[in-house]
## 1
Amino acid sequence: MPENEALWLPAKGAAFRRGPAPRTPPQADEILVRTRAVAVNPVDRLIPVIGGFVYPWLSYPAILGSDVAGEVVAVGPGVTRFRVGDRVLGHAVGPEKASNRAAEGAFQSFALLRESMAAPIPAPLSDEAAAVLPLGLSTAACALFEPDLLSLRWPTAATGAMGETILVWGGSTSVGCNAIQLATAAGYDVFATASPHNFDLLRRLGAAGVFDYRSPSVVPDMIAALRGRRMGGALAIGAGSAAACLRVLGALPGRRFVATASPPVSFDAVPAGRARHLAPVLLRMALASGRLWLAARRRGVTLRMIWGGALLTTATGPMIYRDYLPRALAEGRHRAAPEPLLAGKGLDAIPAALEMQRRGVSARKVVVRL
Ligand SMILES: NC(=O)c1ccc[n+]([C@@H]2O[C@H](COP(=O)([O-])OP(=O)(O)OC[C@H]3O[C@@H](n4cnc5c(N)ncnc54)[C@H](OP(=O)(O)O)[C@@H]3O)[C@@H](O)[C@H]2O)c1
């Protein structure tokens, strides 16, 4: 078999470098996958910049990347759901605290996936389209179903409408596209925000109400449209989303809980390895977090951050990747959204893909073919 190659992050704050990597055989409940497509995420840019704060446990050299689609080349003991030759997608968990293993990062030719965080790819779906799913799906599932977050009824247990509405602020993000689909599959109505050119996409994914988050009257408009409904909580994605969600929930009956995916301040402008650029951003972050906390307290709303990798160690992981996704994808009930945007081919294309992601996309997930 061919040798393994990876895009290494050699040290904290260093630049990515391509180089040989060991090919690690799968242990119990793991599969080894020849990666054919990977998607890039904001976290892959954040770790080189603020990895010391957010991933203090991370061992270097590290291999990042969460989103894998590829072909199984070996299975570990105890694996029953997959065989050599199967096409799979999976959430690669290399940088997670419970893993912290380069062999489980996505940005390499042969990556290890956990059986509980992988699902078969149905024949009509390309590897590039399948690679858009994992981290967005895990993060949305974490927000909606983890007991310490929105704790909604699972889509695998859904037998009818719940009579509650979930607000998804940032519906056209990859987290949002999955959240709309998961919440509707679980029997909740969803109101979501996006730019108007993405309204149709959100409706196709199941949103009952769609709003332009840039409109100056979006919060009062939403509150007016939601009158008479009972809220089940909100998922806040994107800059300014948490503040807006808690204003909406604070004005309506139901659960006053906002699960938030994005920090209140963006780290996008901080160059990797430039600690002196970081201090003012961290200060702004502390001030913005304090303001948010006060606003939430005033309105009686609980605000809690999501950690998309939490599914690695909780029952939500197998519920999503084993019990929900395979059938929902095969039957067309869950769509791989947003559409992939191909940034190039090979590990060397990943840094440019990350830059494309940083500059901003609209309802697209930046993908690299390997
Ligand atoms: N906590 C976690 O575990 C976790 C995991 C994954 C992602 N995240 C975070 O979740 C966020 C989304 O990540 P992603 O990969 O899903 O993003 P993405 O798909 O790259 O986001 C692109 C979308 O963001 C929307 N957008 C831009 N500014 C917005 C705003 N102010 N409010 C709402 N939507 C806005 C745009 O919508 P339009 O084009 O329609 O305007 C665009 O479609 C990021 O902040 C990321 O860091 C957190």
## 2
Amino acid sequence: MRSEGIIAMSYLKQFPEIENEIIKCIKCGNCQAVCPLYQETKTEDMVARGKVHLAAAVLKGVLKPTKDLTRIFTTCLICKACAGSCPSGVAPDKIVLAARVMLAKERSLPLAKKLLFKCLAQPTLFKAGMAIGAKTQDLFFKRSEDSMNIRYPVSGLELRRVMPVLADKPFLLNLPAINKVTDPRSKVAFFSGCTTNFIYPNTGQAFLTVMAHNNIEVVVPKKQHCCGTPVLLHGDTATTMDIAKSQVAIFSQCDVDALVTVCGTCGEAFKKHYPELLKDVPEYSEKAAILAKKVYDFSQLLVNLQPLNKENLGVVNKTVTYHQPCHVGRGIGAVQEPLKIIKTIPGLKFNPLKQPNRCCGGAGSFSLTHYDLSYKILKRKLADIASTTAATVITACGSCRMQLSDGLAQEKMSQPVRHLVELLAESYQNFHDDL
Ligand code: SF4
Ligand code: SF4
């Protein structure tokens, strides 16, 4: 039998930096005002302050890892709103993650998740699974235009949830490895991410259109695969390290000025998670650190590194609002850049949200596993959207797009949700159509 002392010894030793984070918390409770979960539940175990102190007890071995503790630590959006408003500079998301790692080791993840994560780490298997999914999705889902509902009850899945359709053909399939332009001013590598590759290939195509209009050559390594963030957020660091090594090996071979993403979660994996996970692995640590310095959201690339070509922008007659994805804003720091791009597009009327950076409640699989709670958070975002009277919702993350699309469909709101890069590509396209 494992004693509490052994748990304490092993886990605090494994997370020395987390112990330092925990000590910084002064229990002021400022995080209550910004935590979307606390605002819905009003319970201390849902907010950062409660979680920080529970994590301390679990990691010290004062509390044994139980099913209830697993429930508490899996109920967090990792939206980082608490970290952004903490006067002591605590990073509660990192503490929650450490607790998840410990709980995954002590209590083991459900078999279905373990199998899914192993599959995510095997790109060939994952791609084959997605190809089968795309061919057979009509057997399990009822389609209506570009979305669908599950046909049969599945434990843990909400029947009314509107899901996106898997693309017939992944974005990366048959795409040239180098997308050349005449007289390039820069050369970048593109990491598409799973939602762009398998669900929203138009986002990837729009990215290439925008790069071509900006004279930027795009290298698209064909072996790229899932960034591993869903695996990491469940506490499976061993599988995430395998994924990180593979991605670092693939992208280190590209001789490029920048590594560009259209998803903050993927960007954060390269910018923050991989260097941290691989810092003690000699073969990969330096390469991961070099790559991390080259990571840009597409908006950061076009505002900070290679200024946007404004000559060929055409009019887009739309009223839009913008939802800032947590991992784009607080994750990789693209806050002003998307707004600058929106304000550059001719004809666009921008009606901002009152709380653009408030989490939409999607948080990857959180919206699947905690539908009702996730929906309460989403409803506040939908009310904010409605108050803007915008006809189109713009965001910069596939996962937020899925969540917002579900909410808008549930509330019978007609606004389409689009990725910002698609709007920019439309502007370039309109310039040519108007000639
Ligand atoms: S996590 Fe930060 S904001 Fe929350 S109670 Fe601790 S010190 Fe205060
Ligand atoms: S990461 Fe988000 S959901 Fe989790 S405790 Fe912090 S504010 Fe609340």
## 3
Amino acid sequence: MATYSHSKIGTFETCPLKYKFKYVDRTPTEDFESVEAFLGSRVHETLEKLYDLVRNGRIPDEQFILDYYEKQWTTNWSDAVRIVKPDLTADDYRATGRTCIERYYRHYHPFNQGLAVALEMQVPITLDDDGQYKMTGFIDRVDKMSDGVFEIHDYKTNQTPPSQEEKDQDRQLALYEIGLRDYFGEVRQVELVWHYVRADLEIRSRRTGQELEELRAKMIAKIQEIEAATVTKNFPACESRLCNWCEYRPLCPIWKHLYAIEEQAAQPTPLPDDGPALVNQLASLAIKRKELQTQADDVKAQMEQVEAAIIEFAKQHDYQRIFGADRQATVKHVTELKVPTKTNQLDEYEQMLALLRQSPLWLELTDFSSAKLKDMLGKPEGKVLRDLLGALVKQEEEWRVSLRKRKDEE
Ligand code: SF4
């Protein structure tokens, strides 16, 4: 079975299709790196350099380490680095990274909080006793403290730091703790430490033995889910704001038509593409339908007003029928039984059904409908049902107008 990493599993959770592109098909992509990832890598390299010097007995001054950062930025920058946010430039990101380093340096100087025993350490993580479910991870820094506690340090360049509660549930460093404990053997206590370097914020958390066992079980279940998806080839696309940073966008069925349009637009003789015209046609029909619906609603409201006027006119003159040029309106005063309906009075409707089910007449109401019930209630034998339903059945009076072709002209 394949070896998993936390980010590999995270990719599946975020978008199974991206997982398929990246880890199943290993689809080559255009050389692409988001500027956020680029900035993160430069900050990581600089802090690695800093601690590498410290553990070799040299505390570099701040300017040295900032110069190192600037050099790494310049050396590694390429056209493959992509900036998605339109209001920001490469220099803005570069300055952000520099500020992160300055803040970190001033916060932790002279870097003697612990003994850095490992930098960028790769740890194997075995989740089960048989060694079937394996993961691997890279720890930014492992410190051994004077009281024997090991600290797993992780640098984050995200804009907004998460809450303490979120970090107490975080899986990544807890998985690294599992690997670290196996790697070093006798480890009394491990502390997980995140450095949110943009905000100059440190978040700490610890895990109990039971929490680590539960995490092992959860990750095994997650790996089993991925393996099952691989067998059934079930990798649906899952759209999110992360699509903006996805290197597989031009291949993804959700977005690739956009790229096809752009590509054709750049051709001297673009190939025909029915897609935009069809979508535009559908959109204008949807607008037209909405306009007609609004007009229909207006006409309905006007008809109700005219019907009310006809009823009033009929009452005044004691007419039951009023004649127009080629149509006649018949006005009736009706008394009708009303029962609760599923749409308008769900609670009363369910109460009514419960009562009806107790009645011997329920069998006669097979394929129940309000119309059928009202029909039974209107018959003399329906009295049993009327008594049973009590206040749930209402007798309502109303005036109605019906319009048809003049009878005297037929
Ligand atoms: S563009 Fe979005 S939906 Fe498509 S593969 Fe990438 S993350 Fe998934």
## 4
Amino acid sequence: MQPKGFFSAFHDVWMLDGVRTPMVDYCGAIGHVSPTDLGIKAARAVLQRTGVSAGDVDSVIAGNMAPGDFEQFVLPRHIGLYAGVPVEVPAIMVQRICGTGFELFRQAGEQIQSGAASVALVVGAESMTRNPIAAFEHRTGFKLGAPVGFKDFMWEALKDSAAGIDMIQTAENLAKKYGITREAVDEFASSSFAKAVAAREAGFHAGEIVPVVSETFELAGYAPRGIRLSGKVSEVAHDTHARLSPVDVLAKLKAVHAGGVQTGGNSAALVDAAAAAVVASGDYVKAHGKKPLARVVAAAVVGVPPEIMGIGPAPAIRLLLQRCGLTLDQIGRFEINEAQGAQTLAVARELDLDLRKLNVNGGAIAMGHPLAVTGVRLTMTVAREMRRAGARYGIASACVGGGQGIALLLENPQGSEILK
Ligand SMILES: CC(C)(COP(=O)(O)OP(=O)(O)OC[C@H]1O[C@@H](n2cnc3c(N)ncnc32)[C@H](O)[C@@H]1OP(=O)(O)O)[C@@H](O)C(=O)NCCC(=O)NCCS
């Protein structure tokens, strides 16, 4: 019997290129910018980078989790329109929490595979800073003496009421299940920071970043909008979270839950960002002489128990490999989202992964995890890293709160039979 889950194979679907804003610690220099404007910025930049005319885009697929302002409903539409995509072209909002960015590619792949679209613009945008302080029970007024229920949306959204625990506790469950110690988690986190700093110094990250500046996004016949940085800041060009973090420094940080292994130093950092990519059919690639970054080969999504949601990438990757007829050792590079250090280590142990192939340019512990953006970044990063390393296949994957895992298989066009 086939394991349960979605599997989609794409025969001739290509990621032309991707681009992202810097990932900036929350409450930092882009904390006041709406996710829609961050998304427009990334969308415009990727069209420019790929040389794809906005008029060629057939589908806008955008992801965003935290409502960053009152226009979240129209975020995909506004990203498309202000990126110059024709008014007739539809746009959709996609949410699969931490797997949203991958889901954008999965849906783009299905649209292109089915012939519904030739070119899809995929955009993930997230402002962790602008998570609202929200209340859901005051529509009918405030009763005298009753509690006033405003709460931090981000803090509350990181809990799973079915399991009665928060996301950090799901990682603690995995730490217990796989016998992962605080020392092991800090060591993994320290190496994530070191790899991210080395990749930044080598210029790897700069290759996928478009700096954020103050600018106006015009759209003929409609209200202009844009990004205004604060007076003293003229440009935001770099990720801000990664810094060398030796194990002995990380070891001193207080556990989020007493006796646990997860701390603020070995869990994903909270950052603001957007990332975008252009996905196109083989016919479009050939007709326009494009040199794609990667072939989007296949995608898999599965469910796992909510209380160990972080193990999701393991069965998703197993399903992907099984259905593609590949083995783990044929995969040259892995990007698996570091939601929490113990979570990523549990996935690595479950799959018996070679850590030298995993997150070689640093992960979310060092760089941050802007929920809907992460999958776009990891897909772009694994594709660029496969090129750099000369690997044929790469997998990018994430766990998903509520208990899911999602994984994408990419092929380096330089090793692809189809493009030849
Ligand atoms: C773990 C978490 C709760 C910590 O939040 P926080 O308490 O606001 O974290 P901070 O960044 O303030 O870090 C806590 C402390 O560690 C310190 N710290 C963090 N990283 C550090 C590093 N690399 N080196 C040295 N110190 C570090 C901070 O300076 C801070 O110190 P302070 O208390 O003296 O100010 C939060 O980051 C989180 O929930 N992350 C995971 C999100 C997640 O699960 N996403 C996936 C959803 S499935």
